[in-house]
Write a structure and sequence with these properties.
Layout: E1 4-10, H1 13-28, E2 34-39, H2 45-54, E3 57-60, H3 69-75, E4 97-101, E5 105-107, E6 121-125, E7 128-139, H4 143-156, H5 163-170, E8 189-190, H6 198-203, E9 210-212, E10 224-225, E11 230-231, H7 241-255, H8 277-282, H9 292-307, H10 319-331, H11 341-345, H12 353-366
Parallel strand pairs: 1-2, 1-4, 2-3, 8-9
Antiparallel strand pairs: 4-7, 5-9, 6-7, 10-11
């Protein structure tokens, strides 16, 4: 067993997809260190068996939740409370030094040299460089440190409700004491940052060692064409499109065949929109013409992507396709009900509601958007015609 290890955490089967791709990305670049994944009870047994095939150690841990709804609301990320669970990483005392990696990271180049860094080494947070991002950090496992961080958290809380807030407070000297603990940004480059220095991303792209798909957008929640094995890259993410495709290439080559349809939703998943995604992906046939059954599986996955906020605007979910579907639905003629003798004699029979709805909808579509507006009211009484004058003869 190596004295050092790469450590990650997964709390459900969907994030386990990221963990397995991460593990294979580490193997792809030739790491010499162990791979460890911490899992919570919400990971299915089917997924656990697959994780054991990839990682040197699969360690179940209890869930630690910050219960800090107020600060998590500021981030609009209530699911991050459970990320306190990563603090269990300090209990892996069988290792002398470790690097923690979020399961939504992807190792692009070998970076075993990180094991030479000291605790706590991390890269700056893109939106606030005086804080470090806790998606990648070097640390020394130690039971006393674990206890100390938990006690600190209980007393002081976390300024963002998640692990990043508590770790930045606990290791507060990171910002100004020892610059050697500042990792270059290339060890934790944000792929989908709201604000990103795109010119620098393009200039130093070949030097990126670890890419972090931070935020709600995850590679496994982007639309994917099983026949061509190509990911659908949203327009705002074209700068890292090749990295997204690399994630899917590793998935197709090393992970897909390990999936099982027994990877089902779990009632305790904190991200319900992702539940069952691994099981659905297990049913997909890669590189084959899509049958109606395969189309149904992909439609199910696309719906999960839609519900998680990742919409294929330029593909099947484009406005033109949605409008086309609406028109096709409107043009479908409902079956006329069978006529009876009584119907012919009943002059008071009414038009079926669905036909009335269709007719109304068609009129609305056919109507010109620029229908002339009615004349503006002047709020004056309508003038009355002048009274007829009586004839002089009638006098």
């Amino acid at each position: 067993m190596s004295k050092c290890a790469w450590v990650t955490l997964t709390t459900n089967d969907a994030y386990s997809l990221g963990a397995m791709v991460l593990a294979h990305s580490l193997k792809r670049v030739g790491t010499v260190h162990d791979l460890v994944v911490m899992i919570t009870p919400t990971v299915s047994e089917a997924m656990r068996s697959r994780l054991r095939e990839v990682f040197n150690l699969v360690q179940e841990v209890n869930v630690l939740d910050s219960k800090d709804a107020t600060n998590l609301a500021i981030l609009a990320r209530p699911e991050l409370g459970i990320t306190f669970t990563k603090l269990h990483a300090w209990k892996l005392v069988q290792y002398e030094k470790c690097v923690f990696l979020d399961s939504d990271t992807l190792v692009i180049q070998n970076c075993d040299e990180l094991m030479e860094r000291e605790e706590l080494s991390a890269a700056p947070e893109v939106c606030w460089p005086d804080c470090f991002n806790s998606g990648v950090f070097v640390y020394r496992p130690n039971e006393a440190t674990f206890t100390s961080i938990i006690e600190f958290a209980a007393k002081n809380g976390s300024f963002d409700g998640g692990d990043q807030g508590i770790l930045n407070s606990y290791f507060s000297q990171w910002a100004h004491t020892d610059i050697t603990k500042h990792l270059p940004y290339t060890y934790n480059t944000a792929a989908f940052a709201v604000y990103s220095y795109l010119p620098a991303f393009k200039e130093f792209k070949n030097k990126i060692k670890i890419l972090h798909f931070a935020g709600k957008v995850k590679p496994w929640l982007l639309n994917f064409n099983s026949e061509t094995k190509q990911a659908s890259i949203p327009p705002m993410f074209t700068h890292c499109g090749d990295f997204i495709q690399l994630w899917w290439n590793i998935f197709c080559d090393n992970v897909h065949q390990r999936l099982s349809d027994q990877m089902l939703p779990h009632a305790d998943y904190f991200l319900q929109e992702e539940a069952g995604l691994a099981g659905a992906l297990a049913q997909v046939r890669l590189g084959e013409p899509r049958s109606s059954e395969q189309e149904a599986y992909e439609a199910s996955m696309r719906r999960q992507c839609w519900e998680s906020g990742n919409i294929d605007y330029t593909g099947k979910d484009s406005f033109d396709n949605i409008w086309k579907k609406i028109q096709e639905t409107l043009e479908m003629k409902p079956e006329a009900p069978a006529k009876s003798a009584d119907d012919d004699n009943d002059k008071s029979s009414v038009t079926p509601p669905e036909i009335e709805i269709k007719a109304t909808a068609q009129k609305l579509i056919a109507s010109n958007v620029t229908t002339p507006k009615p004349a503006r009211s002047t709020n004056k009484p309508t003038p009355q015609p002048p009274a007829r004058q009586k004839s002089k003869k009638s006098k």
